[in-house]
Amino acid sequence: MIKIFKTEETVELDKYTIAHEPISGVALVERAATAFIHAFCRHYPTVRGTIYVFAGCGNNGADALAAARLLCDAGYCPEVYLFDPKRNLSPECEANKNLLLGRREICFREIVDRFIPPAIRPCDIVIDGLFGSGLNRPLGGEFAAAADCINRSCATVVSIDIPSGLFGEDNRNNNPAHIIKADLACTFEFPKLAFMFAENEPFVKQWTILPIGIHPDIVAKTATPYSLVTPEDVKHTIRRRPKFSHKGTFGHALLIAGGKGKMGAAVLASGACMRSGVGRLTVHIPQRGETILQTAVPEAMLSLDENADFVSALPAADSYDAVGVGPGIGTHHISAGALESLLKSATKPLVLDADALNILAANRRLIKLLPPHTILTPHPREFDRLYGESAAHSYDRLHRAMKTAETYAVYIVLKGARTAVCTPEGNVCFNSTGNAGMATAGSGDVLTGLILGLLAQGYAPETAAVAGVYLHGLAGDIAAADLSEESLIAGDIIRALGKAFGLQHHET
Questions:
Q1: Mapping DSSP to helix (H, G, I), strand (E, B) and coil, where does residue 187 land?
Q2: Is residue 239 exposed (0-12), middle (13-18) or buried (19+ Cβ within 10 Å)?
Q3: d(C-alpha 326, C-alpha 500), whole Å
Q4: Which residues are paired to 351 by β-bridges?
Q5: b/e map of 355-383 (b: 16 or more CB within 10 Å)?
Q6: What are the angstrom distances between the C-alpha of 325 and each of 100, 358, 439?
Q7: How many whole angstroms separate alpha carbon 90 and alpha carbon 469?
Q8: DSSP string across 92-115
Q9: Distance from CA of residue 242 to its chain's centroid?
């Protein structure tokens, strides 16, 4: 997994690298600028307009000035604005300023008082190097004027490391009006925590990670609760299936789902569970769903409830390897009683979603009955209902989910564009797959079925949650590439799961 460090930690990583590689600060800036320019040229092989470089007075500005010089070496003629209102450049920034001053082909302006905005056109490209992730207060003065100029220009904006004005982690007290809106952020070595939150999407439409050779020893020994899941993580997780396997080898899952008007949720969760590699699946449903389930998912076995319209009692769960509850079951008080009985008696891994979470939210005393290592899969509104108060910001919600996972020793899969799996140990694994086409009815039911199937096969809860989320998103990406994000429906994700699993065995 790729570690995600806080701002103060990345500063220490840089210092350690400088001291122990060893390498000078100026040389590390050169390395970062070189990596940035390579990425810039890959993304923008042809530039029709002018390249404007906005540099601040710190090391982010040093990166920008070095990048301007390297652009010049590559045949471009950038216009450079260096903001130094306090006449206090960092040593690295001062050194790179001096290297630029000898380049006649570069239009260089140093802003020490009033900033007069250039006439930036939509065909131009702006390289933003005003501030890095160490910023801890909103932009003001000429820096705010520069951000406003850039945002109004409609030009393509490429930020070095992080969009200027955006704090690296917590932006609750920031001023969004003074944050640069980047089309691309080229971040060094590690993503920023701020990139994981929905509120910051206007400022970071796309981001890429550039390696710059931070010393591996300090990376390995610096602990952080945050990480980003990579394809390699999941490839090393998914097991090969022994040739002499049989259906009993891969577990027996019990899914409790469906109700009047919501049998589709049971169908989707069942289909995904069967595509997970599980050996057998039994679905407990209200009686009216029998024909629907037998027709839509003939591979699944049925356990019929005594009630026609909703779940009123559950089969003994001990004969199954894992149990999933929630898609489409409704919140009838009798169904709530059945869930309570399950929570009191369960000895096998559980995954709870949808209406199971809504029942918990309406009967909060049940939360304390959750068996250790239960997996909960709420979307943000479900999480807020479940834990009693609305979060004003994704940063709040994430840390509340982390604390809740620790307090109750459960796994919380906080769903979103960067779904976060929060563990009982206080760690968070952010997902790296998925697309906006998956914001469609039934997508969450598919995830529940997939995680349930992995649990039933004997995968540990954390592995089932992390791999399930990753494969769910990857299947969505495969389906969207074939169909389009706009036309994607939940069933398409199920149909693409085969290819998603197939990719995990490629070259392994």
A1: strand
A2: exposed
A3: 25
A4: 324, 375
A5: bbbbbbbebeebbebbbebbbbbbbbebb
A6: 64, 11, 21
A7: 43
A8: HHHHHHHHHHT-TTSEEEEESS--
A9: 33
- Residues 6 or more apart whose CB falls under 8 angstroms from that of 102 comprise none
CA within 13 Å, CB half, 105: 12
Closest CA to 504 of 157, 132, 229: 229
DSSP 8-class letter at 370: P
User: Which residue bears the tokens 């820096």?
Assistant: 143
Q: Which two tokens stand for residue 334?
A: 């009798």
Contact 285, 263 (CB under 8 A): yes
State which H helix or E strand residue 29 sits in. helix 25-43
CA atoms within 13 A on the CB side of 374: 27
Edge-to-edge strand order for the sheet containing 2-4?
Answer: 2-4, 226-228, 428-430, 420-422, 411-414, 375-376, 350-352, 322-325, 252-256, 280-285, 301-304
Q: Which two tokens stand for residue 182?
A: 């980047």
How is residue 310 written in tokens? 């909703």
Cβ atoms of 329 and 256 closer than 8 Å = yes
Look-up of token digits 């710190």: 58
Question: How buried is residue 302: exposed, middle or buried, by Cβ count under 10 Å (0-12/13-18/19+)?
Answer: middle
CB 494 within 8 A of CB 270: no
Residues in the chain: 508
HEC readout, 204-244: ECCEEEECCCCCHHHHHHCCCCEEECCHHHHHCCCCCCCCC
Q: What tens-digit pLDDT sequence spans the chain (508 residues)?
A: 999 999 999 999 999 999 999 999 999 999 999 999 999 999 999 999 999 999 999 999 999 999 999 999 998 999 999 999 988 999 999 999 999 998 888 899 999 989 999 999 999 999 999 999 889 999 999 999 999 999 999 999 999 999 999 999 999 999 999 999 999 999 999 999 999 999 999 999 999 999 999 999 999 999 999 999 999 999 999 999 999 999 999 999 999 999 999 999 999 999 999 999 999 999 999 999 999 999 999 999 999 999 999 999 999 888 999 999 999 999 999 999 999 999 999 999 999 999 999 999 999 999 999 999 999 999 999 999 998 777 789 999 999 999 999 999 999 999 999 999 999 999 999 999 999 999 999 999 999 999 999 999 999 999 999 999 999 999 999 999 999 999 999 999 999 999 999 999 754 4
Under a CB-based contact definition with an 8 Å cutoff, are residues 225 and 426 in contact? yes
Instruction: Give the global pTM.
Output: 0.95
